[in-house]
Amino acid sequence: TVDLRGEKPLVTFNDSTKPPDVEMKMKADIAHRFWFGKVNLMVALVRREMVAKGPIPKILKLLPVIKPAYELYPKYLKEKGFSSYLL
């Protein structure tokens, strides 16, 4: 979950308490590569590798937030014992 309502973006995992403004759907392998910074959001949307549900301006607002979040995913995998999935 990426929460952009505050001054700073807040990225959390497994957060089902906040209703989404935007939903992104994709296959797990696309999501995995995406969070390593290996998938371009706009290209994936055009190719329909990712399907977005929600207002386009809010989707575009995610772009500046995504890059710093790439550092969180490998840390999360290591913390949860999934180091073998690191790219």
Written description of the protein model:
- By secondary structure, this protein is an alpha+beta fold.
- The chain has helices spanning 28-34, 41-46, 56-61, 63-69, 72-79; strands at residues 2-3, 10-11, 23-26, 50-53.
- Strand 1 (2-3) and strand 2 (10-11) form a beta hairpin.
- It is globular and about 35 Å long.
- The relative contact order is 0.19.
- The model has no long low-confidence stretch (mean pLDDT 87).
List the SSEs and their pairings.
Layout lengths: L1 E2 L6 E2 L11 E4 L1 H7 L6 H6 L3 E4 L2 H6 L1 H7 L2 H8 L8
Antiparallel strand pairs: 1-2, 3-4
What does the main sheet amount to?
A: 2 strands, antiparallel
Q: Give the spatial strand order of the biggest sheet.
A: 1-2
Order of H and E elements: EEEHHEHHH
The amount of beta strand, in percent, is 5-15%
Estimated radius of gyration? 13 Å
- Unreliable segments (pLDDT under 50, ≥5 consecutive)? none
Outline type: globular
| SS element count, helices | 5
* CA-CA gap between termini: 22 Å
Mean pLDDT: 87
State the total count of DSSP E strands. 4
Helix/strand/pairing category:
alpha+beta
* Helical fraction: 25-40%
